[in-house]
Design a protein that fits this description.
Layout: H1 3-19, H2 34-47, H3 56-67, H4 69-79, H5 82-85, H6 87-93, H7 95-98, H8 105-116, E1 124-133, E2 137-144, E3 149-155, H9 159-180, H10 189-202, H11 206-223, E4 240-244, E5 249-250, H12 264-282, E6 284-286, E7 294-297, E8 301-304, E9 310-312, H13 315-329, H14 333-343, H15 352-363, H16 376-389, H17 399-415, H18 421-436, H19 439-461, H20 489-499
Antiparallel strand pairs: 1-2, 2-3, 3-4, 5-7, 6-9, 7-8
């Protein structure tokens, strides 16, 4: 898309938000400085009465639906944080998870036939109306010819064009922020935008989602905290995905938490442990765990759907994550600080002791306390201030981890307001530390590193023309306190960064 078109979409997005009084909402007018207050009043006057209809969350939800898939995904994230934005606001945004307007079933049937290259009756004995509709696709209740109940996911018509337009506008917005807002540069807006764009592009090929579901299903089966539905491979195409029907009730339905026999504390713990075990033990995790993608059964069974976004962590990132968590669980703030410096998350010129002191100021007020006793808004503001004080930048490779932890912690709070994230994380982290940092594991890792060095030297010696190699290491003067257990550090900074 040409740059003028991207600018046009940005202006149109700003006007859409203003038209719904979601850009400078009247409810916050008292907090604006005089020039901004006057601008808000002018925009509302131009927009007319429609701008004042409904609560702030309702108005924002309507605006995000008009803005498209990328904006809707931001709304889905915000809807998981009732503890920060308030329950009414989060509930008003919850419709963005799976209750968007569907497209006609006739169009869906035609797309299924085109993707699978055969009449729909050759694969399905029944194909019903849409039961859930989200930003990129919708799901239909269907039955295979052998009688099995399945969910058929179908991409929205021409969604690729809309995503491309949104992506161009997002990239343009990131460039403007990087150029004209110096304070936001440590949020790495360009790298962040590219990460979001790439993840959204991958969601447009449902064959990749099928592979992600199959891979994560194998991973989840090893721990049992979460399950994935089986993939029906003969019902998979670029625009169509068929999975076995997920058992239980969708967590996006408030009635799901009132199921007879439901163990809400264990359910919340299982959700957090499922994410942690995926990320730490296997380096691959479901990166879109909002309520619309989770089904629950009594007493505490979770089935996850929608594997369009899969996050991955390398061995180093997994080790840093585990050691940071272990340090927090052990309240060993100097150790947590040391890991941040070793990983390059904090610039080397800063004082380790001062950073450990800052971590203590964050950790001690919330350690061991139930979620309902912690003011997440205050914690996030403090974390954002600390990351600025120590020149910490956004790590693009950790964006999906940060976003997922932010979501998981918010959903766990909704399931069980007294959820103890410390107790939930402890067994998974303790297991990883015992396995990976024990002397045999360290010896094995040292041996592998030595072998890698020797093999590298061998390749260089065998080169036909010896050259002088200058090895440069990317400056790692950045990072977030990514993860401080319930989304705390990284997730919080990520959200505030996105809203800044």
């Amino acid at each position: 898309m040409a740059r003028p078109a991207a600018y046009g979409r940005l202006l149109a997005a700003a006007w859409t938000l203003a038209r719904h009084d979601a850009l400078l909402p009247v409810e916050l007018e008292a907090q604006y400085p005089p020039p901004i207050r006057d601008l808000g009043r002018t925009l509302r006057l131009l927009a007319g009465k429609q701008a004042r209809d409904g609560r702030p969350g309702e108005r924002l939800a309507r605006a995000l639906v008009q803005l498209g898939p990328v904006a809707i995904k931001l709304g889905q994230l915000l809807s998981t944080r009732a503890d920060i934005f308030g329950a009414p606001f989060a509930e008003d945004l919850s419709r963005l998870k799976d209750r968007l307007p569907p497209f006609p079933a006739e169009i869906a049937r035609a797309q299924v036939e085109a993707a699978l290259g055969a009449p729909i009756e050759t694969q399905f004995s029944e194909f019903g109306e849409a039961v859930a509709a989200a930003s990129l696709a919708q799901a239909h209740d269907a039955r295979l010819r052998d009688g099995r109940r399945v969910a058929v996911k179908v991409l929205r018509p021409n969604i690729g064009v809309r995503v491309a337009q949104d992506s161009a506008a997002l990239a343009q917005a990131a460039q403007l922020v990087a150029r004209y807002v110096p304070a936001a540069r440590r949020l790495e807006p360009l790298a962040f935008a590219q990460t979001v764009i790439r993840a959204t592009e991958l969601e447009l090929d449902l064959r990749l989602e099928a592979a992600g579901c199959d891979e994560l299903g194998e991973v989840m089966a090893r721990d049992g905290y979460m399950a994935a539905p089986a993939v029906i491979w003969e019902g998979v195409g670029k625009q169509v995905l068929t999975l076995e029907w997920a058992p239980g009730a969708p967590l996006s339905d408030p009635a799901a938490l009132e199921l007879p026999g439901l163990d809400r504390p264990t359910l919340a713990s299982n959700l957090l442990r499922a994410f942690l075990s995926q990320a730490l033990d296997h380096g691959v995790f479901h990166a879109d765990l909002h309520e619309g993608n989770l089904f629950v059964e009594a007493p505490a069974k979770i089935t996850a759907v929608d594997y369009g976004i899969v996050g991955r962590l390398g061995p180093d990132e997994r080790r840093y994550l585990a050691e940071i968590l272990w340090g927090f669980l052990d309240r060993d703030y100097p150790r947590v600080a040391e890991v941040h410096f070793r990983a390059g998350y904090v610039p080397a010129h800063h004082d380790r002791a001062a950073f450990a002191q800052a971590l203590r100021a964050v950790g001690e007020p919330v350690f061991g306390r139930a979620a309902s006793q912690v003011s997440m808004s205050r914690v996030l503001i403090q974390l954002f201030e600390i990351t600025a004080l120590f020149d910490m930048h956004l790590r693009p490779e950790l964006v999906l981890l940060q976003k997922t932890m932010m979501t998981v912690e918010g959903v766990a709070r909704r399931i069980d307001p007294d959820h103890d994230i410390w107790a939930a994380a402890d067994p998974v982290v303790r297991r990883w530390i015992a396995r990976e940092l024990a002397p045999p594991a360290q010896a094995k890792r040292l041996a592998q590193e030595s072998l890698d060095i020797l093999q590298g030297l061998k390749r260089r010696l065998q080169a036909p023309e010896p050259t002088v190699a200058v090895v440069t290491t990317p400056e790692r003067d950045s990072g977030w306190l990514w993860f401080f257990l319930g989304a705390l550090t990284t997730g919080g900074a990520f959200l505030l960064g996105a809203l800044a």
